[in-house]
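Here's a chain:
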Amino acid sequence: MKILVTGACGFIGSHLVEQLIKKNFSVKAFTFYNARGSNGWLDNIDKKLKKDFEIIQGDIRDQDFLVNNTRKVDVIFHLAALIGIPYSYNASKSYLDTNVYGTYNVLNAAKTNNVSKTIVTSTSEVYGSAQTIPITENHRLSAQSPYAASKIGADQLALSFNKSFGLPVTIIRPFNTFGPRQSSRAIIPSIVTQIIKNKNIVKVGNLNPTRDFTYVEDTVNAYLKTIKNKNISGEVINLGNNFEISINDILKILKKDFGYKFEIVIDKKRIRVKNSEVNRLYASNLKAKKILKWKPEHSKLSGFKKGLEKTIKWFKDPKNLKFYNPDVYSI
Protein backbone atom coordinates (compact mmCIF):
# COMPACT_ATOMS: atom_id res chain seq x y z
CA MET A 1 0.00 0.00 0.00
CA LYS A 2 1.39 3.39 -1.01
CA ILE A 3 0.65 6.30 1.29
CA LEU A 4 1.29 9.96 0.58
CA VAL A 5 1.66 12.55 3.37
CA THR A 6 1.43 16.27 2.65
CA GLY A 7 3.00 18.50 5.29
CA ALA A 8 5.40 15.64 6.01
CA CYS A 9 8.13 18.05 7.11
CA GLY A 10 6.04 19.47 9.95
CA PHE A 11 5.25 18.56 13.54
CA ILE A 12 2.52 15.92 13.23
CA GLY A 13 3.47 15.01 9.66
CA SER A 14 7.02 13.96 10.53
CA HIS A 15 5.83 11.79 13.42
CA LEU A 16 3.25 10.20 11.13
CA VAL A 17 5.84 9.44 8.43
CA GLU A 18 8.07 7.75 11.01
CA GLN A 19 5.29 5.48 12.23
CA LEU A 20 4.14 4.60 8.72
CA ILE A 21 7.67 3.54 7.81
CA LYS A 22 7.99 1.47 10.98
CA LYS A 23 4.78 -0.31 9.99
CA ASN A 24 6.30 -1.09 6.57
CA PHE A 25 4.06 1.09 4.42
CA SER A 26 5.43 2.55 1.21
CA VAL A 27 5.56 6.29 1.93
CA LYS A 28 5.81 9.37 -0.28
CA ALA A 29 6.53 12.44 1.84
CA PHE A 30 5.60 15.84 0.40
CA THR A 31 7.71 18.68 1.78
CA PHE A 32 7.58 22.37 0.93
CA TYR A 33 10.15 23.32 -1.69
CA ASN A 34 12.82 25.78 -0.57
CA ALA A 35 16.18 26.92 -1.87
CA ARG A 36 18.05 25.35 1.07
CA GLY A 37 16.84 21.86 0.23
CA SER A 38 15.58 21.50 3.79
CA ASN A 39 12.95 18.89 4.56
CA GLY A 40 12.10 20.21 8.01
CA TRP A 41 11.89 17.66 10.78
CA LEU A 42 12.38 14.79 8.33
CA ASP A 43 16.03 15.83 8.21
CA ASN A 44 16.30 14.94 11.91
CA ILE A 45 14.63 11.55 12.10
CA ASP A 46 16.50 8.30 12.64
CA LYS A 47 19.00 7.85 9.80
CA LYS A 48 18.03 4.19 9.54
CA LEU A 49 14.54 5.25 8.44
CA LYS A 50 15.58 7.78 5.81
CA LYS A 51 16.33 5.18 3.16
CA ASP A 52 12.85 3.69 3.46
CA PHE A 53 10.69 6.49 2.04
CA GLU A 54 10.56 8.92 -0.86
CA ILE A 55 10.76 12.68 -0.32
CA ILE A 56 9.21 14.97 -2.93
CA GLN A 57 9.63 18.72 -2.64
CA GLY A 58 6.88 20.88 -4.06
CA ASP A 59 3.89 23.07 -3.26
CA ILE A 60 0.28 21.99 -2.73
CA ARG A 61 -0.80 25.20 -4.46
CA ASP A 62 0.42 23.66 -7.73
CA GLN A 63 -2.39 21.54 -9.16
CA ASP A 64 -0.32 19.74 -11.81
CA PHE A 65 2.31 18.86 -9.23
CA LEU A 66 -0.27 17.08 -7.09
CA VAL A 67 -1.98 15.28 -9.94
CA ASN A 68 1.36 14.01 -11.25
CA ASN A 69 2.56 12.83 -7.83
CA THR A 70 -0.58 11.09 -6.60
CA ARG A 71 -0.76 8.45 -9.32
CA LYS A 72 -0.82 4.89 -7.93
CA VAL A 73 -1.31 6.25 -4.40
CA ASP A 74 -3.77 4.38 -2.16
CA VAL A 75 -4.12 6.78 0.78
CA ILE A 76 -3.48 10.50 1.16
CA PHE A 77 -2.92 12.06 4.57
CA HIS A 78 -3.32 15.80 3.99
CA LEU A 79 -1.63 17.80 6.75
CA ALA A 80 -0.01 20.66 4.83
CA ALA A 81 -1.37 24.04 5.95
CA LEU A 82 -0.52 27.50 7.19
CA ILE A 83 -1.32 27.38 10.91
CA GLY A 84 -0.05 30.49 12.73
CA ILE A 85 -3.11 32.39 13.92
CA PRO A 86 -1.47 35.82 14.45
CA TYR A 87 0.05 35.70 10.96
CA SER A 88 -3.41 35.03 9.53
CA TYR A 89 -4.45 38.51 10.70
CA ASN A 90 -1.72 40.06 8.55
CA ALA A 91 -1.68 37.78 5.51
CA SER A 92 -5.19 36.37 5.22
CA LYS A 93 -5.08 35.65 1.49
CA SER A 94 -2.08 33.38 1.87
CA TYR A 95 -4.20 31.20 4.17
CA LEU A 96 -6.91 30.95 1.53
CA ASP A 97 -4.33 30.10 -1.13
CA THR A 98 -2.71 27.32 0.91
CA ASN A 99 -5.49 25.99 3.13
CA VAL A 100 -8.46 26.25 0.78
CA TYR A 101 -7.06 26.17 -2.74
CA GLY A 102 -4.28 23.80 -1.68
CA THR A 103 -6.87 21.42 -0.23
CA TYR A 104 -8.86 21.70 -3.45
CA ASN A 105 -5.76 20.59 -5.35
CA VAL A 106 -5.34 17.58 -3.06
CA LEU A 107 -9.01 16.62 -3.47
CA ASN A 108 -8.93 17.10 -7.22
CA ALA A 109 -5.79 14.98 -7.51
CA ALA A 110 -7.41 12.24 -5.41
CA LYS A 111 -10.49 12.35 -7.63
CA THR A 112 -8.47 12.36 -10.87
CA ASN A 113 -6.31 9.41 -9.78
CA ASN A 114 -9.03 7.42 -7.98
CA VAL A 115 -7.24 7.47 -4.63
CA SER A 116 -9.00 5.02 -2.32
CA LYS A 117 -8.92 7.19 0.80
CA THR A 118 -8.14 10.82 1.60
CA ILE A 119 -7.77 12.01 5.19
CA VAL A 120 -8.02 15.79 5.52
CA THR A 121 -6.68 17.42 8.69
CA SER A 122 -8.90 20.02 10.32
CA THR A 123 -8.52 21.90 13.62
CA SER A 124 -10.58 22.48 16.76
CA GLU A 125 -10.31 26.21 16.02
CA VAL A 126 -13.19 25.79 13.55
CA TYR A 127 -15.58 25.51 16.52
CA GLY A 128 -14.63 28.83 18.08
CA SER A 129 -15.25 29.17 21.82
CA ALA A 130 -17.27 26.23 23.08
CA GLN A 131 -21.03 26.81 23.23
CA THR A 132 -21.72 23.32 24.61
CA ILE A 133 -19.37 21.02 26.51
CA PRO A 134 -17.89 18.68 25.53
CA ILE A 135 -17.62 19.73 21.88
CA THR A 136 -19.05 17.10 19.55
CA GLU A 137 -18.70 17.01 15.78
CA ASN A 138 -22.18 18.58 15.55
CA HIS A 139 -21.11 21.74 17.39
CA ARG A 140 -21.64 24.86 15.30
CA LEU A 141 -18.70 26.16 13.30
CA SER A 142 -17.55 29.68 14.16
CA ALA A 143 -14.46 31.27 12.61
CA GLN A 144 -12.82 33.65 15.07
CA SER A 145 -9.70 34.13 12.93
CA PRO A 146 -8.89 34.08 9.22
CA TYR A 147 -6.99 30.85 9.90
CA ALA A 148 -10.13 29.21 11.30
CA ALA A 149 -12.18 30.50 8.37
CA SER A 150 -9.72 28.97 5.90
CA LYS A 151 -9.92 25.61 7.66
CA ILE A 152 -13.73 25.68 7.69
CA GLY A 153 -13.60 26.36 3.96
CA ALA A 154 -11.21 23.45 3.41
CA ASP A 155 -13.37 21.09 5.49
CA GLN A 156 -16.56 22.01 3.69
CA LEU A 157 -14.85 21.63 0.33
CA ALA A 158 -13.70 18.14 1.32
CA LEU A 159 -17.19 17.13 2.40
CA SER A 160 -18.63 18.53 -0.82
CA PHE A 161 -16.29 16.29 -2.84
CA ASN A 162 -17.59 13.34 -0.87
CA LYS A 163 -21.24 14.25 -1.47
CA SER A 164 -20.87 15.44 -5.07
CA PHE A 165 -18.37 12.96 -6.48
CA GLY A 166 -18.39 10.10 -4.00
CA LEU A 167 -14.75 10.77 -3.16
CA PRO A 168 -13.77 8.72 -0.06
CA VAL A 169 -12.81 11.62 2.23
CA THR A 170 -12.62 11.80 6.01
CA ILE A 171 -12.09 14.89 8.17
CA ILE A 172 -9.83 14.29 11.17
CA ARG A 173 -10.16 17.20 13.61
CA PRO A 174 -7.36 17.23 16.20
CA PHE A 175 -7.68 19.39 19.24
CA ASN A 176 -4.44 20.83 20.62
CA THR A 177 -1.78 18.27 19.79
CA PHE A 178 1.53 18.80 21.62
CA GLY A 179 4.89 17.11 21.91
CA PRO A 180 8.41 17.02 20.45
CA ARG A 181 9.01 19.10 17.29
CA GLN A 182 6.03 21.41 17.77
CA SER A 183 6.52 25.02 16.68
CA SER A 184 7.43 27.52 19.38
CA ARG A 185 4.41 29.51 18.22
CA ALA A 186 2.32 26.97 20.15
CA ILE A 187 1.83 27.59 23.85
CA ILE A 188 3.60 24.57 25.40
CA PRO A 189 6.83 24.86 23.36
CA SER A 190 6.76 28.61 23.93
CA ILE A 191 6.60 28.21 27.71
CA VAL A 192 9.07 25.31 27.89
CA THR A 193 11.73 26.95 25.70
CA GLN A 194 11.46 30.17 27.68
CA ILE A 195 11.98 28.26 30.93
CA ILE A 196 14.99 26.40 29.56
CA LYS A 197 16.65 29.35 27.82
CA ASN A 198 15.53 32.37 29.84
CA LYS A 199 15.42 30.49 33.15
CA ASN A 200 13.48 32.89 35.34
CA ILE A 201 10.97 34.77 33.16
CA VAL A 202 8.09 33.40 31.10
CA LYS A 203 6.16 35.77 28.87
CA VAL A 204 2.60 34.72 28.10
CA GLY A 205 -0.64 36.19 26.81
CA ASN A 206 -4.09 35.39 28.16
CA LEU A 207 -3.88 32.91 31.05
CA ASN A 208 -7.57 31.99 31.17
CA PRO A 209 -8.32 30.07 27.95
CA THR A 210 -8.63 26.30 28.32
CA ARG A 211 -7.51 23.75 25.78
CA ASP A 212 -7.87 20.01 25.29
CA PHE A 213 -4.29 18.78 24.82
CA THR A 214 -3.48 15.48 23.09
CA TYR A 215 0.04 14.07 23.01
CA VAL A 216 1.37 13.66 19.48
CA GLU A 217 1.83 9.88 19.74
CA ASP A 218 -1.89 9.53 20.42
CA THR A 219 -2.83 11.79 17.53
CA VAL A 220 -0.65 9.78 15.14
CA ASN A 221 -2.12 6.50 16.40
CA ALA A 222 -5.57 7.78 15.44
CA TYR A 223 -4.36 8.57 11.91
CA LEU A 224 -2.96 5.04 11.63
CA LYS A 225 -6.34 3.58 12.58
CA THR A 226 -7.99 5.28 9.62
CA ILE A 227 -5.97 3.34 7.05
CA LYS A 228 -7.89 0.08 7.12
CA ASN A 229 -11.18 1.45 8.47
CA LYS A 230 -13.97 1.05 5.91
CA ASN A 231 -16.65 3.02 7.77
CA ILE A 232 -15.29 6.57 7.82
CA SER A 233 -15.96 7.99 4.36
CA GLY A 234 -17.75 11.33 4.69
CA GLU A 235 -17.23 11.44 8.46
CA VAL A 236 -15.86 14.22 10.67
CA ILE A 237 -14.00 12.86 13.70
CA ASN A 238 -12.66 14.79 16.69
CA LEU A 239 -9.34 13.76 18.22
CA GLY A 240 -9.16 14.99 21.78
CA ASN A 241 -8.44 13.95 25.33
CA ASN A 242 -11.92 14.74 26.71
CA PHE A 243 -10.07 16.93 29.22
CA GLU A 244 -9.40 20.65 29.49
CA ILE A 245 -6.76 22.69 31.26
CA SER A 246 -6.07 26.42 31.38
CA ILE A 247 -2.79 28.03 30.44
CA ASN A 248 -2.52 29.26 34.03
CA ASP A 249 -2.85 25.71 35.38
CA ILE A 250 -0.12 24.48 33.01
CA LEU A 251 2.20 27.08 34.51
CA LYS A 252 1.26 25.89 38.01
CA ILE A 253 2.04 22.28 37.05
CA LEU A 254 5.46 23.30 35.72
CA LYS A 255 6.21 24.91 39.09
CA LYS A 256 4.68 22.32 41.40
CA ASP A 257 5.29 19.02 39.58
CA PHE A 258 8.48 19.85 37.69
CA GLY A 259 10.10 22.19 40.19
CA TYR A 260 10.68 25.14 37.85
CA LYS A 261 10.91 28.61 39.33
CA PHE A 262 10.01 31.55 37.14
CA GLU A 263 8.18 34.84 37.07
CA ILE A 264 5.14 35.15 34.82
CA VAL A 265 5.01 38.28 32.70
CA ILE A 266 1.89 39.18 30.71
CA ASP A 267 2.99 40.31 27.27
CA LYS A 268 0.26 42.24 25.44
CA LYS A 269 1.82 41.31 22.11
CA ARG A 270 0.93 37.68 22.83
CA ILE A 271 -2.75 38.38 23.46
CA ARG A 272 -5.12 37.76 20.58
CA VAL A 273 -7.56 40.38 19.35
CA LYS A 274 -10.46 40.37 21.87
CA ASN A 275 -13.18 38.86 19.68
CA SER A 276 -10.72 36.46 18.06
CA GLU A 277 -9.70 34.65 21.25
CA VAL A 278 -11.11 31.15 21.58
CA ASN A 279 -11.77 30.89 25.29
CA ARG A 280 -12.61 27.23 25.70
CA LEU A 281 -11.95 24.01 23.80
CA TYR A 282 -12.93 20.67 25.30
CA ALA A 283 -13.44 17.68 23.02
CA SER A 284 -15.87 14.85 22.96
CA ASN A 285 -13.90 11.88 21.64
CA LEU A 286 -16.78 9.40 21.74
CA LYS A 287 -17.00 9.19 17.95
CA ALA A 288 -13.28 8.44 17.62
CA LYS A 289 -13.59 5.74 20.24
CA LYS A 290 -16.62 4.22 18.50
CA ILE A 291 -15.58 4.42 14.85
CA LEU A 292 -11.77 4.29 15.03
CA LYS A 293 -11.56 2.16 18.19
CA TRP A 294 -9.12 4.82 19.41
CA LYS A 295 -8.44 6.27 22.80
CA PRO A 296 -5.51 8.40 23.97
CA GLU A 297 -2.90 6.60 26.03
CA HIS A 298 -1.88 9.90 27.61
CA SER A 299 -5.33 10.58 29.03
CA LYS A 300 -6.73 13.10 31.49
CA LEU A 301 -4.46 15.07 33.85
CA SER A 302 -2.06 12.25 34.63
CA GLY A 303 -1.58 11.48 30.93
CA PHE A 304 -1.10 15.15 30.15
CA LYS A 305 1.68 15.32 32.73
CA LYS A 306 3.39 12.24 31.25
CA GLY A 307 3.25 13.78 27.79
CA LEU A 308 4.54 17.06 29.19
CA GLU A 309 7.47 15.24 30.82
CA LYS A 310 8.42 13.62 27.49
CA THR A 311 8.10 16.96 25.72
CA ILE A 312 10.33 18.79 28.20
CA LYS A 313 12.97 16.04 27.99
CA TRP A 314 13.05 16.39 24.20
CA PHE A 315 13.33 20.18 24.30
CA LYS A 316 16.14 20.07 26.87
CA ASP A 317 18.34 18.14 24.46
CA PRO A 318 20.72 20.78 22.97
CA LYS A 319 20.49 19.27 19.48
CA ASN A 320 16.74 19.97 19.52
CA LEU A 321 16.70 23.21 21.49
CA LYS A 322 18.99 24.92 18.99
CA PHE A 323 16.10 25.16 16.52
CA TYR A 324 13.95 27.24 18.87
CA ASN A 325 13.60 30.93 19.60
CA PRO A 326 11.81 31.42 22.93
CA ASP A 327 10.86 34.98 21.99
CA VAL A 328 8.52 33.91 19.16
CA TYR A 329 4.94 34.81 20.08
CA SER A 330 2.75 31.94 21.17
CA ILE A 331 -0.73 31.26 19.82
Q: What stands out?
A: The CA atoms of residues 126 and 141 lie 6 Å apart. The chain has a mean pLDDT of 95.
